[in-house]
């Protein structure tokens, strides 16, 4: 078998990054223009909120489909089809002049994200088994940059095109075009390799429904993801409640997003040579807990608290994405574990911010709502104590080459 050269490895990393930029932009681009959409289409607040909540629930519900599609078409080709679906649904927003069509684009984007996510984990397991932590960091950073660009630039784009939110939302389909273009060489090489190994097909794998450890990881992923969405949703309103200006509150939310993105890239880089994930999980959770305590007591500014929360969120997401790769031995198995974890995890994560909001409504303050998040992080720490060490695996030829970079 021909070993991949340095250029091939670097291209795979670059392609992984660009593909990952597609996995949040269709969701995060909506929030800054929600009021414009609601005003133009004359829809209720509940209906317009579905544009962001539907994709998250779809990311959970349709995640188990990824494995079946991968068995039929292969990991690389299925990822490309999922990105194509995300891009097409995003582009369709250009002509979404009534609410039902706009909601359909949210459903289709959520399905594409649900399929691509688990398979990207399988791709990382196949091509970078000894560097999975660093590649999860690349994956997380790609999602974060795609989310930040779409959320930060959607309003300027709308203003550039005469207040057209349709154009401002549809323009992010460019990420899918970029993704498909850089993914084509990956698919070609994958097709060649599968032709060579066609005489020895791999056995099909199933989701680990009966595995207690998989359920434990599912719960952990769901709780940490729920806290992220809670911070993203309620951190700015909490700053407003404390008497800060709207501009300062927006800055607080922006700082949280930027630090979370940087943390998701940097923290996994320290984990490739470390088989014990527990200390990193616990420290990340404690960082967010410290941010909450300082916020509630007023001992630090909301921006500093947002930094601590961002560090915690930036560590927990990639770490919980790494854990199923640690436990599995094949790309398909990694995809199936990730699919199950995201299936249950995203359903849980969609509930946590709702519970936080309900606590706020009952108490008329965000203090008790953020206190509730302290208990969620305490549960994450307890689950972290049961996390297993990374399984050691022999280094394949392509990884020996990658190690020399």
Automatic annotation (TrEMBL):
<dbReference type="InterPro" id="IPR011701">
    <property type="entry name" value="MFS"/>
</dbReference>
<keyword id="KW-0812">Transmembrane</keyword>
<protein>
    <submittedName>
        <fullName>MFS transporter</fullName>
    </submittedName>
</protein>
<keyword id="KW-0472">Membrane</keyword>
<dbReference type="GO" id="GO:0005886">
    <property type="term" value="C:plasma membrane"/>
</dbReference>
<dbReference type="InterPro" id="IPR036259">
    <property type="entry name" value="MFS_trans_sf"/>
</dbReference>
<feature type="domain" description="Major facilitator superfamily (MFS) profile">
    <location>
        <begin position="8"/>
        <end position="392"/>
    </location>
</feature>
<keyword id="KW-0813">Transport</keyword>
<dbReference type="InterPro" id="IPR052524">
    <property type="entry name" value="MFS_Cyanate_Porter"/>
</dbReference>
<keyword id="KW-1133">Transmembrane helix</keyword>
<dbReference type="GO" id="GO:0022857">
    <property type="term" value="F:transmembrane transporter activity"/>
</dbReference>
<dbReference type="InterPro" id="IPR020846">
    <property type="entry name" value="MFS_dom"/>
</dbReference>
<dbReference type="Pfam" id="PF07690">
    <property type="entry name" value="MFS_1"/>
</dbReference>
């Amino acid at each position: 078998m021909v070993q991949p050269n340095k250029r091939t490895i670097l291209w795979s990393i670059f392609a992984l990054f660009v593909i990952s930029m597609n996995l949040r932009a269709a969701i995060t681009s909506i929030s800054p223009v929600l009021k414009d959409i609601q005003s133009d289409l004359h829809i209720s607040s509940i209906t317009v909120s579905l544009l962001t909540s539907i994709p998250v629930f779809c990311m959970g519900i349709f995640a188990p489909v990824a494995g079946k599609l991968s068995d039929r078409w292969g990991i690389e080709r299925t990822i490309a089809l999922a990105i194509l679906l995300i891009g097409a649904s995003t582009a369709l927003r250009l002509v979404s002049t009534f609410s039902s069509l706009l909601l359909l684009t949210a459903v289709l984007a959520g399905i594409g994200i649900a399929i691509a996510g688990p398979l990207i984990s399988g791709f990382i397991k196949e091509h970078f088994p000894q560097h999975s932590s660093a590649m999860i960091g690349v994956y997380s950073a790609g999602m974060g940059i795609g989310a930040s660009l779409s959320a930060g630039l959607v309003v300027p784009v709308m203003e550039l095109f005469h207040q057209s939110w349709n154009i401002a939302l549809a323009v992010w389909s460019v990420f899918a075009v970029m993704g498909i273009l850089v993914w084509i060489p990956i698919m070609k090489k994958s097709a060649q390799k599968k032709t060579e190994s066609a005489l020895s097909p791999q056995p099909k794998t199933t989701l680990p429904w009966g595995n207690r450890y998989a359920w434990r990881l599912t719960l952990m992923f769901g709780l940490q993801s729920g806290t992220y969405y809670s911070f993203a949703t309620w951190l700015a309103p909490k700053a407003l409640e404390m008497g800060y200006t709207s501009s300062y509150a927006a800055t607080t939310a922006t700082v949280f997003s930027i630090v979370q993105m940087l943390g998701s890239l940097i923290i996994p880089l320290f984990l490739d040579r470390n088989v014990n994930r527990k200390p990193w999980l616990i420290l990340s959770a404690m960082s967010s807990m410290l941010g909450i305590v300082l916020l509630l007591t007023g001992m630090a500014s909301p921006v500093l608290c947002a930094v601590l929360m961002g560090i915690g969120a930036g560590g927990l997401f990639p770490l919980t994405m790494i854990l199923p790769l640690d436990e599995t031995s094949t790309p398909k198995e990694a995809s199936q574990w990730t699919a199950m974890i995201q299936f249950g995890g995203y359903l849980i994560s969609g509930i946590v911010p709702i519970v936080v909001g309900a606590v706020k409504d009952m108490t008329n303050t965000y203090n008790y709502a953020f206190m509730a998040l302290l208990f969620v992080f305490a549960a994450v720490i307890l689950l972290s104590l049961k996390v297993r060490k990374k399984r050691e695996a022999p280094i394949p030829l392509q990884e020996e080459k990658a190690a020399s970079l």
